[in-house]
Amino acid sequence: MTDALPPYPVPPGPGRDRPASLVRRVLPAVAVMGAAGGLLVLLDHPSGTEALDDTASGGAGSAEIPSTTVAPPTTVAPSGGASSRSTTTTVPAAPTCTPSTTVTGDAVSTKYGPLQVQATVASDGSLCTIEALQVPSNDRKSVSINQRAVPTLTQRALAAGDTDFDAVSGATISSNAYKRSLQSVLDQL
Amino acid sequence: MSGPGQRPFRASHRCMGTVASLHVHDTVEPAVVDAAARATFDELDRLEEIFSTFRPESEISRANRGELHLLDCSVEVVDVLDACTWLEHTTGGAFSAHPPDRPGQIDPAGFVKGWATERATRRLTEAGLEHWYLSVGGDLQVHGHPTGRDRWVVALTDPTTPGEIVATLAVDEGAVATSGTAARGRHLWDGRSGGRAAALASMTVTGPHLAWADALATAAFVLGADGVGWVSRFDGYHALAVTLEGELLADPVLAAHADA
After folding, report:
1. What is the pLDDT at residue B74?
2. ipTM of the complex
3. Which tens digits make up the pLDDT trace of B79-99?
4. Which has the closest alpha carbon to B250: B242, B240, B237?
5. Which of A38, A124, A150 sits opposite B163 (nearest CB)?
6. Which of residues 44-103 of A touch B (CB under 8 A)?
7. Is A164 on the interface with B (CB under 8 A)?
8. pTM of the predicted model, to two decimals?
């Protein structure tokens, strides 16, 4: 066994650090790999499932969706109170930030057109403002979203102190493009 | 911590259909960081060569065509498939390396991206570096802290409102991974029903290892709002989700750390 994998995550309670015999579980499946859904057949087979339960870590071996006894997630109110993140939210005064340079992020293509952000940067490397130079606009719905999004972008970032970050994570087509263009700004600082 | 006049090291590298970003804030000889960065990117490339289903000559592609037996593949392949089997079982099929539209094929991409990113960071620790993050397409592993702050701050983009940041997360060691509707998509099917997963806009998971955080984010995304509580069952892993209505759902532990 190599050390190619980090320790398997285990839920609290008794369990093994890793299901050591699981590799042997893979080997017989490999023999039928050519057939459609080979490994799935093995897992669905009642005796196959029991065998996996023997070796899988503790409670993590359960194939059930967790029950409702798990503590419900907390709904986090967005800044500015209430449930709205519209432009009418009262915004506290932005901290002062004196721009000394401008950094332009990569233009990232999306299926609605290119998206590119530009940031002004203070001498200590903190971002003062972020604005979109190009926004995807080929799609009508995308245009209305961007007309709303472009003016709030910088303001929201300043309001929450959000210009002061090191990296970006996210999902979806448009925000992926924003994330990549913004990360490319951070990569150039 | 950078010395006076020494700027943090930043580099990017195209791979895995996206861009890898490496930031290093250690105070070291530039040659040391340059070599470590090159080794890190080389490792990402090496792993992509083995696992990419978009490369006809990768070991996975050749195995899917029956040209190469899985037992004759690189040793990492067996371990990655081991992990995928465990994940498929643990998630009740919500995570699956078996695309429903390509029966008999394996596609471990949903696990490989996070696993490969974390694995590549070994090159940084081997070089003695302590303050860095490696992000591949917004899924990142971090260590230490940036200059002037005690933790790395990661901004999460709002999947429902392009151009907005929904929250930031401060992390000093571990991983942040986000799964959502615009991921390359081939791994975002609901392994239980074979259909597309679509109840949430995005799911972000933090925890010690990007290999697991990435896969748990993928599985939890499929589970929907229940996914947030499900992730918290794994020691050290916590989730934060954005619903289609733009509402933020957070593990109570994470809510204490998120700035929204």
Report:
1. 92
2. 0.80
3. 999 999 999 988 888 888 998
4. B240
5. A150
6. 52, 56, 59-61, 63-66, 70-79, 83, 85
7. yes
8. 0.68
- Residue range B209-232, pLDDT digits in tens: 999 999 999 899 988 888 899 998
Contact B188, B222 (CB under 8 A): yes
On chain B, the residues whose CB falls within 8 A of the CB of A85 are 161, 164, 246
Please list, in sequence order, all residues whose beta carbon lies within 8 angstroms of the beta carbon of residue A67, skipping any fewer than 6 positions away: none
Q: Are the C-beta atoms of B40 and B12 separated by less than 8 Å?
A: no
Average pLDDT per 10 consecutive residues for chain B, totaling 260 residues: 68 92 96 98 97 95 93 91 91 87 89 96 97 95 91 84 77 89 48 59 92 93 88 88 83 60
Helix (H) / strand (E) element for B177: namely: strand B173-180
Q: Is B117 on the interface with A (CB under 8 A)?
A: no
Q: What is the DSSP letter of B168?
A: E
Q: How many residues does chain A have?
A: 189
- The torsion angles phi and psi of B29, rounded to 5 degrees, stand at -60, 135
To 10 degrees, what angle do helices B75-90 and B30-51 make? 70
CA dihedral B39, B40, B41, B45 (to 10 degrees): 90
